[in-house]
Write a structure and sequence with these properties.
The chain has one domain. The chain is 76% helix and 0% strand. It is built from 16 helices and no strands. The longest helix has 29 residues.
Length: 361
């Protein structure tokens, strides 16, 4: 039963991705099917959201300079992420920067190739083995890192929602997310200052069952990762680094909008500096990544971009091309750096696959 459940999870993600890819590419005409005017193939696939004219129009106006700058800016986020993760791991044991940097890159590579965001766990396993730290302990630092990311996104949404008129349902979803993040962050702060109490509890349960001891061990390691919140200097870095990462992602989105010349006045709602629209699109696409999908966020990312650009009256065909280019920019850049790290640490992909199977077992 457990094996069937594990195999079903990635299948559900793939199905969701395929459904969203279909709706990104086609506009089904169900009313004409029901009325009998057209057959099922014509009703489902007869009206594409994208045309050759859309490709021609985008090709004529695409600027490569801003696109190259967007790639370089996205690359810079990898170095900042590695520095922050190293800061968190250091609360447990000092680890070399480049070990962590390659771990970050391999995490993205594996997320783009494997289902269920398996790269998040496998990068912890890879770094843990190379740094002689329990992989389970390093996983807790990944969880802590993602808590800080969510906190940054929650703060960003709270700021942007005061200036940008999100649809009611997006505001509701975003504010619910921000509220959940606030609860998690508050709990993390409380745990970070309760390590001694948790250690005493951990010692007291050593004669209990294996499950209780395992839970206690995981909680203790997680609190060790959160001890970064007890240091004032480290706390400052934890606060500014997630916001800096989101600024980088907003800047990347803004540069691709410039590359498509969306900000030159063709679409009035995007005209000008377009920092606020870029922030809104970044938030929407980030929330889209939370939906289970095939590896690399295929379908969910495209659907989120299409939804976001519809708020600015961008034609569907052009929006689909933008989503595809934006996804490819992220996917190829992050995957490319992952391949570089694979060679840099002389790790074979077959070794990673074997590690994934061991973890799955």
């Amino acid at each position: 039963m457990k094996s069937n459940s594990k195999s079903l999870q990635p299948l559900i993600g793939v199905i969701i991705s395929l459904i969203l890819v279909y709706f990104v590419l086609f506009s089904p005409q169900l009313s004409t099917l029901i009325s009998g005017d057209v057959g099922i193939i014509e009703a489902l696939f007869g009206q594409s959201r994208i045309s050759l004219d859309d490709f021609r129009a985008v090709g004529e106006q695409l600027l490569y300079g801003p696109a190259i700058l967007a790639i370089l800016l996205l690359m810079s986020s990898l170095f900042l992420r590695a520095w922050r993760w190293q800061l968190i791991i250091r609360q447990i044991k000092p680890v070399g920067y480049w070990t962590v940097f390659h771990g970050v890159n391999l995490g993205y590579l594996l997320n783009n190739l494997l289902p269920l965001r398996a790269g998040e766990v496998l990068r912890a396993v890879i770094v843990g083995r190379r740094a002689n730290i329990s992989p389970a302990t390093v996983v807790t630092t990944v969880v802590a890192e993602r808590v800080f990311d969510m906190a940054g996104l929650g703060i960003l949404f709270g700021i942007v929602t005061f200036f940008f008129p999100f649809p009611d349902w997006i505001q509701t979803a975003g504010l619910t997310f921000a509220g959940g993040v606030l609860i998690v962050l508050t709990g993390s702060l409380i745990l970070a200052h309760s390590e001694e109490r948790l250690k005493r509890w951990h010692d007291a349960i050593q004669k209990r069952g294996k499950l209780i001891r395992s839970v206690g061990e995981i909680m203790l390691r997680f609190v060790e990762a959160l001890s970064v919140l007890r240091s004032k200097s480290a706390m400052i870095h934890v606060v500014w680094s997630p916001m800096a990462l989101w600024v980088i992602y907003i800047g990347t989105m803004k540069l691709v909008l410039d590359a498509f010349q969306f900000t030159n006045g063709t679409y009035p709602l995007l005209a000008g500096e377009a920092i606020l629209p870029a922030a809104a699109l970044t938030i929407i696409t980030s929330l889209g990544f939370a939906i289970p999908s095939a590896p690399g966020g295929v379908g969910t990312y495209h659907g989120a971009v299409l939804l976001g650009l519809s708020l600015f009256n961008v034609p569907e065909g052009v929006a689909v091309i933008f989503a595809t280019v934006m996804h490819a920019l992220n996917y190829l850049t992050l995957t490319g750096w992952g391949v570089v790290s694979l060679f840099a640490i002389r790790l074979k992909f077959s070794d990673i696959v074997r590690t994934a199977k061991e973890h799955d077992d």
